[in-house]
Design goal:
- The protein has about 90 residues and is α+β, with helices and mostly antiparallel strands.
- It has one domain: Transcriptional coactivator/pterin dehydratase (Gyrase A, domain 2).
- Helices cover about 40% and strands about 25% of the residues.
- Strands 1-2-4-3 form a 4-stranded antiparallel beta sheet, covered by helices on one side.
- Helix 2 runs antiparallel to helix 3.
Length: about 90
Amino acid sequence: MPKLKVAEITAARKAVPAWRKNGAKISRTYEFHDFAAAMKFVNAVARAAERADHHPDINIRWNRVTLALTTHSEGGLTTRDFALAKQCDGLV
């Protein structure tokens, strides 16, 4: 899967506006009522990631979960990153 060009990334970001581009990654922090709710979300993300065979970096801080996506094999962002980001947004 080819790495996206700048214009393609700009267009893809419109579908996931809460996600921020940082270098070769996109990331988003979600905030929940408590730790249990955050972990329920993380487990749902894990199931979606396994189905997609595409795994985010996950940082958990009590009720806050930060996900970061990049396609390591391509050295940057691909359509897989934006597809999984959209799926994660749908889990909230």
